[in-house]
Amino acid sequence: MNETSEFIPAVPASQPQNWTDHVIVKVAVIGVIILALMIPSLMISSLVSERSNRKFTVTNEVSSKWGQRQTIAGPYITIPYFQEIKVTAKEPNWVESDFSFFPRKLDLQGTMEPVIRKRSIFKVVLYQSNLIIKGHFDYPDIDALQIKPENIEWDKATIHLGISDLSGISQEVQIQSNYTILHMSAATPVAINFQNGLMSRLPKTLLQKEGFDFEIVLKLKGSQGLYCVPVANNTTIALTSAWPSPKFEGQFLPDTSTITPQGFTARWTILDINRQISQFWKQDNPQNLSVTYVNAQYPTDAVSTNQTSLGVELIDPVDGYAKNERTVKYAFLLIAMTFIVYFFFEILKKQKIHPLQYGLVGAAIVIFFILLLSLSEQIGFDPAYLTSSIATIILITLYSRSIFKTKRFATYVGGLLLLQFGFIYTILQLEDLALLAGSIALFLIIGLIMYLTRNVRWSE
Hints:
This protein is α+β, with helices and mostly antiparallel strands and about 450 residues long. It has 7 helices and 19 strands. The strands form 3 sheets. Strands 1, 2, 5, 8, 9, 11, 13, 16 and 19 form a 9-stranded mixed beta sheet that branches. An 8-stranded mixed beta sheet has the order 7-6-10-4-3-12-15-14. A hairpin with a 7-residue loop joins strand 1 (about 70-85) and strand 2. The two termini are about 35 Å apart.
């Protein structure tokens, strides 16, 4: 034997041969890889928002040619009168003003026939509504307004109906009262600060002491939602549709509603004491019934800012962008749990796994989210989730078999991945209980990790 060989110290079997064999170093490397994989995950989240905004743009383009969300306000009557303005030591001045009032009773009944239009890969939910608006106008309470009857220009009275988007009107609008038929034309309803509307001259003969009944037949096209402002002393609204996924919005929810796979019916009854709207008013104190729509991240979250309106949105149940966004938020959990499984197999099986192999497994999980987004736009979220998750599980399982050189450990990895993807899908369905289910599951996972590693000596 060579004498120099006596001075070569024997390397203990437990001493690390490589810097990556140190547990603390390996954990740090895995943490860096996870953080690095969060960058493409955030980019995918931005891509989901971009695709959602693209759909919103397409929806606006199609709606602008068909009809936007519709809000109906009215009808109401406006009558001019002369108001005396007294000036000290001078002759009084007379200026023309006007007063307005809503009906005492209003009954709106209608149907919303859903219409689907496609632009590229996006589906836009439209509707064609057939509305019948009935009601009764009382003789105006001019005593409460402190207006003298002789100062009122009864022959200049007009009746108005506020409609947010006139391009959706598909048939001439008329008001019928007994044998009198009034044709309505476009005019801005300034007395209620509304965007658009219709107007007609009101014959003096209708403004009698007992008032008059009226009926308006309105065929109105729109997109996504239909709203109404309850302006009468007693307002009843009844809507039916074959659309199975409604979302009731506004200040008032329906008194009764029925939702089935064949459609929905909803009915509201609103009294004048339920909302802050004056029943009659003068020109110098107009009603503010203007309406705009605040759009959240997704088009289906858009709601009316009119605090007195009520209505229904036709929600697309297969719009998966919100679910895609929620799924991407679980990227960290999915990658971290998979790496933990690999790490403990590495510790318990005493087999080294290169950091690059961790990176490739993480990259496969990141690609899952891209597959999910692209497939959900074509076949819907649920089939896309099933297809993407199965493909990812098979890919990682086969790769794990080449790492561990045994079918048993690769099967364990595939089974654990199946549980993870199934757990995330369950969380996505449990919107109200998602936090509770997630916290319980994480607690059980931590408990399982503690149990499996109870005999591991980390300091060795």
